[in-house]
Design goal:
By secondary structure, this protein is of the alpha/beta class. Helix content is 40%, strand content 19%.
């Protein structure tokens, strides 16, 4: 009986020791700011850990032609864009209230790969049987947003959404704007957000341009469309981004890409009818329209090199003041 009681006491003591060690380890992992360390560093309290590239891949994998798009009304576009503006100004509660009225949500995510926090603005209908296809936005919460990377044709220009993620991760102060449907999803060209003024995507990009935030829009071309080139670089309808365009073309060339410079010669797919570029031009804001070959968009080293070249420009943008 005594031996049995002794064994029970020993087991209980061991359990207490293990519990104490676990508590101590947790205390060591916690930082004074209310965060918990993971392999990349402190994870902010209240932020949901994600892999941003996988999150975006899961989101855009549902896109397809002839389904998943409902044209928004004017009040929908204006309210969502205004709410994104509130987020940029740090008024999160007001932004959440306004977005909720349009069936959008805001959550804080922590991207494990980059170690950065982002505010994710998402449409609640994304996971519904009949999604509206109004898009998604990721805003840098660790730095003041000062530039944007825009993906107007996810699922159609394959790989551009992942290139957008790479660009966002590469420089502080970025805003990633992703269209919410396949280019061919709507009636006629209603879901082709690069050529429509009446989309949520355009309303958000116009709000960013109004605030003086330069942007780069990534597209893709078929291999046969631009023979002899890997990239077509353009400033769209405007010229405010001409020096940035030249520098980007030089950076891409330095990373081994063959670049067609639309300001220096006639190139296919120059993006002069792109409506986001036209709005940026009206606001005298730099806008770059960049088309990539399938090989660059396929991922791996070519995509890394392309993102590295773009980062040379976005880091410069991140250091410029933004006028509200």
């Amino acid at each position: 009986m005594r031996a049995h009681r002794s064994r029970l006491i020993t087991i209980a003591t061991l359990l207490l020791v293990v519990t104490g060690l676990a508590a101590g380890l947790t205390a060591l992992l916690r930082t004074p700011g209310g965060t918990v360390d993971d392999a990349r560093g402190p994870v902010p309290k209240g932020a949901e850990q994600i892999d941003l590239s996988r999150e975006v891949a899961d989101y855009t994998s549902r896109f397809g032609p002839d389904r998943g798009y409902l044209a928004p009304g004017r009040s929908d576009r204006e309210d969502i864009a205004a709410a994104v503006g509130l987020l940029l100004d740090g008024h999160r509660k007001q932004a959440e209230q306004r977005l909720s009225q349009r069936d959008f949500t805001v959550r804080t995510v922590f991207d494990r790969s980059s170690g950065h926090r982002y505010a994710e603005v998402a449409d609640r209908t994304d996971s519904a049987v009949t999604p509206r296809g109004w898009g998604r936005v990721y805003l840098d919460l660790d730095h003041r947003p000062s530039w944007s990377v825009q993906v107007p044709h996810p699922g159609f220009d394959l790989g551009t959404e992942q290139l957008g993620v790479r660009v966002l991760r590469g420089s502080p102060g970025g805003v990633l704007v992703i269209a919410g449907a396949h280019r061919k999803a709507g009636v006629g060209n209603s879901a082709d957000v690069a050529h429509r003024l009446d989309t949520v995507f355009h309303a958000i990009c116009a709000e960013l341009a109004r605030r003086g935030m330069p942007g780069i829009q990534v597209h893709g071309f078929a291999a046969s469309a631009v023979p002899g080139y890997d990239v077509v670089a353009s400033t769209g309808a405007g010229s405010a981004g001409r020096q940035d365009g030249r520098d980007l073309a030089d950076a891409l060339l330095g990373h081994g890409f063959r670049v067609c410079r639309a300001w220096a010669r006639s190139c296919p797919l120059e993006g002069r009818t792109n409506v986001q570029g036209r709005v940026a031009d009206a606001d005298h804001v730099p806008f770059l329209h960049v088309e990539f070959s399938p090989e660059v968009r396929a991922g791996g080293r070519p995509a890394e090199r392309a993102a590295a070249a773009i980062t040379e420009i976005t880091r410069r943008w991140a250091g410029r003041p933004v006028t509200d």
